[in-house]
Amino acid sequence: MPSRDRIVNRYVRQYNERKKAKERRKLVLLPIKLAFGIACVGVLAYFVVQVFLAFNTPMTTATALSTVVNDEFSIVGYFVREEMVLEADYDGILVYTANEGDKVSRFGEYAAVYENSSAAELKETVTQLDENIQFLQSALDSSMDTSGVMKLSSYIYEGLCNTAELADAEAFTLISESASELKSNIITRELTNTSAEEIQSMITALESQRDRLNALIGDSETTLKTSEAGFFTSHVDGYETVFDVDALDELTPSSFRKLTQQNKRITSRQVGRLVTSFEWYFVSNLRVDAAAALSQNSTVDLRFDAMGDDVVRVRVESISEPEDGEVTVVFSSNQNMKELVNLRKQSASVILATYEGLKVPKDAVRVDAEGNLGVYVITGMYSEFKVIDVLYETEDYYIVDTDPTTTKSLLVYDFIIVNGKGLSNGKVIK
Fold first, then answer.
1. Hey, how many other C-beta atoms are within 10 angstroms of the C-beta on 354?
2. How far apart are CA 331 and CA 296, in angstroms?
3. What share of the chain is helix, strand, coil (3-state, %, to 5)?
4. What is the pLDDT of residue 410?
5. pLDDT at residue 382, rounded to an integer
6. CA end-to-end span of the chain, whole Å?
7. Long-range pairs for 372-379 at CB < 8 Å and ≥24 separation?
8. Which pLDDT belongs to residue 135?
9. Which of 117, 185, 267, 301 has the highest Cβ tally under 10 A?
10. Where are the domains of the chain?
């Protein structure tokens, strides 16, 4: 029979073993309890924050403003025209007498060749004198009262703004004409207090100076003339003989791409080109999904990068069969030849439609009990639900219609409630 001491020692040993096992279990469960506690605290904090926001989020509004949005996509293409290269064998200094885009008659002068630089400089001076004479003649023909002078000052201000905008937009094809008109208006405005006799005297003096310089130039000038009538440009790029207007409807994406990649030879004898038809074409390879918005014989607007914000109405002449996910689209027009005559490869935007209405943030749009789409606006001290008619949708906002004849319609300068809880018709806005 075991002694009392041995029994006591066994119980003590068993007690210590159970104590150690319990401590080990505590150590194992401690991280789990800690993670569970943190998760509970997080969930509780989330619900507390949501409850706080539900009762304390400030109301935010947006003003309904008029806006214009284009449904458009970008393309890159090439101009194709009926055109002929102007060639000349000359020995001397070539000076163009026709401006870019000028309409030149058959056998009309487009350039002159001078034996030396002195004669060329004299001709440049003569050209400037002719321009100044024209401006003075315009001022002489303008008889203005006070209202006319004020109107002219307004034209000058608009001209300065337009020229600056064209420069910022890099619409280089339009700057020359705008700057010339601006200069004419400034000269006319400066001469409003000058008598007709004084202006005529200035014109006579300039004409005399011009005639004297022309006499000095004499036989050192040889003029170059066209054999056909057309629009002139000094730019020759080699594509004049690459593209064929009569074969445009036969183009495919691959054949058009091969044409654009051809090596083009330009010689020193090629001094310009003449576009002999009013009709021009713009050809581009488009993705099939983009071209799906177009149909043959339909009309769209093109906005070329070189023309700033100006658009040109064009006709969809042809759309090729699909090839590797692309089609070749040919646009045609007879507008703006003067501004576009020296362009070949150009980026453009195809404008399918233009939408004008009120801009409404998507976050502000709600659906009423009858399923109508609308927004809540602040009318006096109350919220009012106004049904909207969506014209166009972007990623962040809608363009909606407006009817200024009724207050039931969303109107310009209405305060649209973007953020607000528990909104309803007639609810008092605090």
1. 13
2. 9
3. 40, 30, 30
4. 94
5. 86
6. 91
7. 375/410, 375/416, 375/417, 376/416, 376/417, 376/420, 376/423, 377/64, 377/410, 377/414, 377/415, 377/416, 377/417, 378/61, 378/414, 378/415, 378/417, 378/429
8. 75
9. 185
10. 17-52, 60-67+357-419, 87-225, 231-355
Q: CA-CA distance, 298 to 250, in Å (whole number)?
A: 19
CB 345 within 8 A of CB 75: no
Q: Which residues of the chain have pLDDT under 70?
A: 1-37, 39-58, 141-194, 430
State pLDDT tens for residues 229-262. 999 999 999 999 899 999 999 999 999 999 999 8
Tell me the residue type at 336. N
The residue type found at 13 is R
Question: What CATH class is the domain 60-67+357-419?
Answer: mainly beta
The reported pLDDT for the residue numbered 245 is 95
pTM of the prediction?
0.67
The 8-class DSSP code of residue 92 comes to S
Q: Cα torsion at 211, 213, 219, 223 (round to 10°)?
A: -80
What residues are paired with 331 via a beta bridge? 282, 316
Token pair belonging to 233: 């440009």
Q: Identify any residues that bridge with 312 across adjacent strands, giving them in sequence order.
A: 302
Location of structure tokens 């943190």:
38
Write the CB contacts of 390 (distance below 8 Å, at least 6 apart in sequence). 373, 398, 399, 400
CA distance 214 to 127: 10
Give pLDDT tens digits for 339-357.
Answer: 899 899 999 999 999 999 9
